[in-house]
Protein 1
Amino acid sequence: MPEFDCDVLIVGGGPTGVTLALIAARHGASVIVCEREAEIYPLPRAAHVDHEVMRIFQSVGAADAIAATSRTTMHYDFLTASGEILLRFEGSDRVGPGGWPSANMIHQPSVERVLRGELERTPQAELRSEWRFTALHQEAGGVSATFETPNGQRTLRSRWLVGADGTRSPVRAAAGIELDDLQFDEPWLVIDTIVHDFDRLPPVNLQICDPARPTTCVLMGEGRHRWEFMMLPGETAEQIMDDAFVAALLKPWNVDGAVSLERKAVYRFNARVAKDWRKGQVLLAGDAAHQTPPFAGQGMCAGIRDAANLGWKLGMIARGAADDALLDSYQVEREPHVRATIALAVMMGQTVCITDPVAAEARNQQMLAARAAGQSPDGAVEFPPLATGCMLGGTAGAGSYFPQFMAAEGERIDDALGEQAWLIGTITPGIAAPAGVSLVSLDAAPLAPWRKAAAQWLTERGAEAVLVRPDRYVFGTGDAASLLSAWAQR
């Protein structure tokens, strides 16, 4: 194949594509991002990212600026039409294992501006706007992709092509990848508003499980607030988006004068997963690979997690530190996690979207009784560890998420130890680390503010050392020499 224009060609310049570009470039790959639009889409879409995604943004230098435009809230409530609590997810404003608040309510255009600003400062990556993908052709060791651009048709050649191009994904279609439909399809009206008086709005996120009209009410960043109203049988998009209809929907919230309308749109909330996330040198990420209903707030989060999982692997392969087979771990690691979060979102959606009054009353009585008996699944949302893939199976903690320890002064361990893989623990003198792995002895000065927390983590697992991957999932535990040997073999 002729000389490559880049190692990684990403189709789609949204949050997933740009984050992937930033991570892959930081780990050694050259990257081009091609986006069909001229500018960032100016209206809100995603409304939430969690602590782990904020940690990923931290890894590319974007977290502080994103946090400055975000809001937090204490909890996420599912209520009956009369206001009784059916389900409450606590701790949304508390710092999660990723070292940031568990729930961060965002304004997506603001997030994208920050990420693109970081991309402009990254020498190994570039963004090409108004480049519309039209076709691809795979050859041994690479991909040719064709684009329509302001200057006519252009072709780029890369070692890998990643489709981060949304739910309709022309890349997925061109690669012949099918979707597994998980049978959730509900139309909802989404109303985004600019807030003028926060005191007149709910301070927490709400799901109103009212059979007359299931409704979502959530905070957003940058002075916004969102309502979502389920469409009822017989209603049309034209009817429900009429200004008078929207005003009638908002009237019970008593927000006239407190907010002004910014956007109204009808969305179909779906649950789908691509059957293949890799086909030769073509990969999928974000909405191109999976789509989830919004009830768990994990749509954008899942795409950013894809970027974190895939980016360091592409970088290592590009710089010759790993074999192309490392990419086989991408789908086996990410798909079970995605399916678990989609299942949670579908469960939430099925709880909310009951419109039969008799069934809704039965739901209410069952959930209220469970909560009264202390059997309700209240608390913070937890996600499963990696079950297989690039890890040392059979060792304590392998596949789990390694926490970002915080010092008393608020310093985060990631900022001190850097973006590479870490081997933390008891390290015998003379052990040498391969490129891309930082050796961090428990008695090393850089670890001092977090030494107690790291030592406790190891003690709880009966381990001398832990090898933490660049995406901050645990490769494995054991003695340092064995961990480095196993890492090299993987």
Protein 2
Amino acid sequence: MKPAALTEELEESLFGGKAAQLAAATRAGLPVPAGVALPYGFVDALAADERDARQRLAAVFCTLGAPLAARSSAVGEDSEQASFAGQHLTQLNLRSESELVDAVSAIWRSARSPSAFAYRERLRLPREPRMAVVVQELVDADSAGVLFSRNPVNGSDEIVIEAAWGLGESVVAGLVIPDRFRLRRDGAVAERIAGLKDVAIRTDPEGGTSSTHVCEGLTHVLCLDDAQLAALHALALRCDEVFGGSHDIEWAFAGSRLYLLQRRALTAILSPAAGDHTDEHVRCAAK
């Protein structure tokens, strides 16, 4: 098995759900950063330090250039049955071939952590993971976050957006209280709530990322304007056309340009009477 561009039709059984959905989005014309998917057999070979795999990955680096992002795409990840949210690594701002090799190997190892094995056991999935990886051009975001095409708490038919300054990891990891927006199905803004965005995850010139303080004048300022909300609304509607169902989307703005970083199905939507058994990704991405 060898790497394949995200412009190709990718088999989920080889490249994982994240890669397959990003490839479908790319072919549909959605704003996905250029990238390459590494099938799980290739990632296994790289983790075993096989020379041919290292050479092929070096070619991927030369094709895409730096900086890069590497994200897990395990077979079964981002499915309707299991999101694996918070279980597998994402490595950002990779600036050399050696950093990319180390990042892919670290992602492979993350699928074999005690918590990842426990997660698989809880969902009665096969114990041995098949870890594929997506490598993409890095979006150095001015603002980023998550979008749910249905309210993940009460299931209402509205779009919920959470956003913060910088890279979206500050939202996904719960490092800030993000801005929160609710949009009606026609795009009208039903609610805007400014969060407390006192830190931002930014790219480091030397590689990787770091947490930086947000100046006091911006901590309570909404990080999305009406034009950006309209672009996110349009993206959600396009995902309806391409995928159907309900979506959990990670997105980023670099300047005025919107990028789709990943799309997964919402794995659980609660009614108000459903209790507190919230899906693990909703806990991670919407807290």
